[in-house]
Specification:
- Helix content is 75%, strand content 0%.
- The chain has 215 residues and is an all-alpha fold.
- It is elongated, with a radius of gyration of 21 Å.
């Protein structure tokens, strides 16, 4: 019985978060009203406040949930028992799908950041979550690169940890650019950037195409 109540609560919470995203996209964070979120989510205002203590708490949760959705995309795409080449390709491809998922929401996210970052308790919840999110993704990619180095397929003189941080920073940069220049921040552009990074890692890079003498 408790499991069913918990599942029902999770469904309600998910509905509220989706409603908050829709209202936020229409009204902005400042213009969003909890009454409208509750109505769209088909819950009472009292129920809404049982899940979220304030509008700032609600919009902080929308940011975190969006990144958790991105984490689920990566987890589904990567079999931890697969060979490192397959894991690395899967992770990078999944990160391009994270851009597709989060990119359209980033304008609202930045509005919410501006609000919640001014409140110390909310700021640490947000920044702590994002630090953990980026650090964990970087550690996973770094280990894939190290396996490539041990296999002799990647250059041994490259710091795998720093390179992984750069790859994650690429995603962050594309998410930022998606707010004001979405045509230049597509998943295809990000995939090409990732591929350029990986090609540069090769211990025996492919020779230049005929006629490509750098002139």
């Amino acid at each position: 019985m408790s499991d069913s109540r918990g599942n029902f609560g999770a469904v309600k919470r998910a509905r509220i978060l989706q409603a908050a995203l829709r209202v936020g996209e229409l009204r902005g964070v400042d213009g969003a009203r909890m009454e409208e979120v509750a109505s769209l989510a088909q819950v009472s205002k009292g129920t809404l406040y049982r899940f979220f203590e304030s509008k700032h708490d609600l919009f902080l949760a929308t940011i975190i949930e969006s990144y958790q959705e991105g984490l689920r995309i990566v987890d589904i795409a990567v079999d931890p028992d697969s060979p490192w080449q397959q894991r690395l390709r899967g992770r990078l491809a999944a990160l391009t799908r994270v851009l597709e998922s989060l990119g359209p929401r980033m304008s609202l996210h930045f509005q919410a950041w501006g609000v919640v970052a001014g409140e110390p308790g909310f700021q640490e919840r947000l920044y702590g979550f994002l630090r953990d999110f980026h650090s964990a993704r970087g550690l996973e990619i770094a280990e894939d690169i190290r396996e490539g180095q041990r296999a002799g397929e990647f250059r041994a003189d490259v710091d795998a940890g720093r390179l992984a941080e750069g790859i994650i920073a690429l995603l962050s940069g594309f998410l930022y650019r998606a707010t004001f220049d979405p045509d230049a921040a597509t998943s295809g552009h990000l995939q090409e950037a990732f591929s350029t990074f990986v090609r540069g890692l090769a211990s025996d890079p492919a020779p230049p195409a005929p006629g490509d003498d750098g002139a």
